[in-house]
Amino acid sequence: MSGHFLNDKETLVHGLAPGETPGRALQGYYVITPFIRDDGGTVLVNRGFVPTELKAQGDRTSGLIEGETAVTGILRASEPRTMFVPAPDPVRGEWFNRDVAGIAAARGLGDVAPYLVEADAVAGQTSWPRGGQLRVDLPNNHLQYAFTWFGIAACLVGVFGVFAWRRLHEPA
């Protein structure tokens, strides 16, 4: 989709991203920026991750996109807030989940699409924010599940066999 970003209305959402060292995560923020489409309408775009030390927009001006641009990415639904996620504080700009309706209302954006776009990574990009943070990893544990359930079934057959044998061979 093509259009332009409203950089002055970006929202930072607390998050983690894979670090340089395997198993270590970077703490920082996802940069959610309203995007005005050429064909009309507004959609929120998760432009990517910035480390905590680059929270201020002035510290990452090389990553701001001004003017007409195109965005590619994956559509995602708004994230529901679970009981272990703190409530957002829009006045202080503290967000802990990607709540499309809440962010749109706090920024006074009006009618916004009910989804957001997770921006793709840009090859060779050295500036922040960095897109492509969404990792689609569907585990294939079917063999493990099969062994588990067939093992449980075999145990149940064994327990029933012992029960039935005792019932049949009990003195009357």
Q: What does this entry look like structurally?
A:
It is elongated and about 90 Å long. It has two helices and seven strands. The longest helix is centred in the last third of the chain and has 27 residues. It is α+β, with helices and mostly antiparallel strands and 172 residues long. The model has no long low-confidence stretch (mean pLDDT 92). Strands 1, 2, 3, 4, 5, 6 and 7 form a seven-stranded mixed β-sheet that branches. Strand 2 and strand 3 form a beta hairpin. The protein folds into two domains: 118 residues, no CATH class; 33 residues.
Strand content: 25-35%
Q: What is the radius of gyration computed over CA atoms, rounded to a whole number of angstroms?
A: 25 Å
Q: Any idea how many domains?
A: 2
Number of helices: 2
* Distance between the amino and carboxyl termini: 81 Å
The chain-level structural class is alpha+beta
